[in-house]
Design brief:
- The complex is a heterodimer.
- By secondary structure, chain A is mainly beta.
- Chain A has strands at 4-7, 10-13, 19-25, 34-39, 46-50, 54-55, 63-68, 71-76, 86-91, 99-100, 104-108.
- By secondary structure, chain B is mainly β.
- Helix content of chain B is 0%, strand content 49%.
- Chain B has no helices and ten strands.
- A six-stranded mixed sheet of chain B has the order 2-10-9-4-5-6, with no helix packed on it. In chain B, strands 1-3-8-7 form a four-stranded antiparallel sheet, with no helix packed on it.
- In chain B, a hairpin with a 6-residue loop joins strand 5 and strand 6.
- Chain B is globular, with a radius of gyration of 13 Å.
- Chain B starts with a strand and ends with a strand.
- Classes of the chains: A mainly beta, B mainly beta.
- Chains A and B meet through strand 5 and strand 10 of A and strand 5 of B.
Chain lengths: 109, 115
């Protein structure tokens, strides 16, 4: 089973800042099948990025994903107030054991 | 638009059973893998089970293998999760979701296992 480790656990930032979240896999993620999700309190997760770098439908271009192999990042170029949430990475290249990272909480400073 | 609506959650005693349902609309249900993913209170996301588009391939997390059964009815655009021998650690919000990089997700249904 591929283990995904996200860092940091919590980030305190201000609107307007740029942020980079990290997701490291315990082994190579096949075909860069790595996705990122955003979850706000009381809501279901929402897909942001799939295939490591492709934005899902309707996702603003301030969100971008990059990386390959075992190291992946999600960057938000300029934080908006609605971006403060928990972010999860997920790999879907190692069937059948799709796995999630433990999450990074982005909070307002 | 694409929509997934879960139902069937509730309070059940340890050792009891519950059947979750997920009604899909807005897309060709029979074309997609479907999944159940859960989130314990205050915790992260955990894959529970998935089923192939035709229903012939299924997967279960080790924590639920032998107790949970996933199924689908493509004629009714519906996904199911039969949960038996429930334990306190199964307490969670259960989401149904479309595809291996799930999108979209339903709103979730809360399952509470407690005496």
């Amino acid at each position: 089973e591929i283990v995904l480790t996200q860092s940091p656990g919590t980030l305190s930032l201000s609107p307007g800042e740029r942020v980079t979240l990290s997701c490291r896999a315990s082994e190579t993620v096949s075909s860069n099948y790595l996705a990122w999700y955003q979850q706000k309190p009381g809501q279901a997760p929402r897909l942001l990025i799939y295939g490591a770098s492709s934005r899902a439908t309707g996702i603003p271009d301030r969100f971008s994903g990059s990386g390959s192999g075992t190291d992946f990042t999600l960057t938000i170029s300029r934080l908006e107030p609605e971006d403060f949430a928990v972010y999860y990475c997920q790999q879907y290249g190692s069937s059948p054991l799709y796995t999630f990272g433990q999450g990074t909480k982005l909070e307002i400073k | 638009q694409v929509q997934l609506v879960e139902s069937g959650g509730g309070l059940v005693k340890p050792g009891g059973s519950l059947r979750l349902s997920c009604a899909a609309s807005g897309f060709t249900f029979s074309d997609y893998y479907m999944s159940w993913i859960r989130q314990a209170p205050g915790k992260g996301l955990a894959w529970v089970s998935y089923i192939s588009s035709g229903g012939n391939i299924v997967y279960y997390a080790d924590s639920v293998k032998g107790r949970f059964t996933i199924s689908r009815d493509n004629t009714k655009n519906s996904l199911y999760l039969q949960m038996n021998s429930l334990r306190a650690e199964d307490t969670a919000v259960y989401y149904c979701a479309r595809g291996p990089s799930p999108d979209p997700w339903g709103q979730g249904t809360l399952v509470t296992v407690s005496s």
